[in-house]
Amino acid sequence: MAFRQTLFSDVCGTTDELKKRLYEEYDQVASDPDGTLAGLVDDAVYMVGRMHQRLEEYRSLRERVREILASMETIEEVGREKAEEAERAIRQRIQSPQAFEEARAEEVDRAAESIRSVASKQERTLRQYKDQALRLHNAFMQIKGNRPWLVEEEGEGCLIETLRKQYQAWLPPPPHAEHLLDWLSRARAVVSETASPDGQPVVQFEDGGVMPMSQVRWDADIGNFHPASFEPGAAARQYRRKSPQIFHRKGAEDAAKRQG
Question: Has this prediction a pTM greater than 0.90?
Fold first, then answer.
C-alpha cells in the first residue's frame, strides 16, 4: 500500500478522536464536516486496508502450508522390519565360530546389504522430509519478516539496544523513543522495508497505523502513539465504547446550550 501517515497507531484511537470531535467540537464539525472528519475516516479505512493486506499474507501462508503438508503425504516411507530381520539373520550366523563356519559368507553379505538398502531408502525419505520442512521454514520466515517473534523475554534488552544503535539517527526524543523501542522489541510494531518519501524509516504498528520514525510520539493519557505534528486530547478516550444514549443526551445538552 502507498505510504500514509496516520494520526494514531490504531483504529480505536482514531475512532475515539472522531467521536470527541462529534460531541465536543460540534459547531466546527457542522461548519466543515468533510474537512474535520474525512481525514480520520481515511486513516481508519487505510488501517483496515493494511490489516487486510496482512490477513491476505496469512491466507497465502495457510495455502502454502497445505501444499507442503500434501507433499509430505506423498513421501513413501520404509519400515525397519527388513533391517531387523537381516540383523537377526546375521546374529544367528555370528553367535559362535561354529555357527559362522556353517553359514555361507554370501548369506551374511546379503543380510548386510539388506540393512544397507533399508538405510538408503530412509536417507532418501529423510531428505524429502527435510526439503519440505525447509519450505515450511522459508514460508514462516517470509511471513515473519523482520519482526522479532522468537526473541525471549530476557533477550529483549539486547534487541532494544541493537535497535537503538541501528536507528539512532531517526529515533524520537525520550521518553517517546523508549516506548517505541519497547513496542518494536515485542513486535507490536515493525520498521517497514519501505522508507518514507524523505528517506527515513517508517514505523508500521500491528494495528494498522503508520508514522515516520522521528515523528512518533507516545501519549500516556490516551495510551496511544501519534505524530509530533498532532496533539490529541485526553478526553477522546472517554468516548470509547460509550452507549449511544450518552452521546444523544450530551448532544441534546450541547444543542440546548447553543440555543440558550
Answer: no
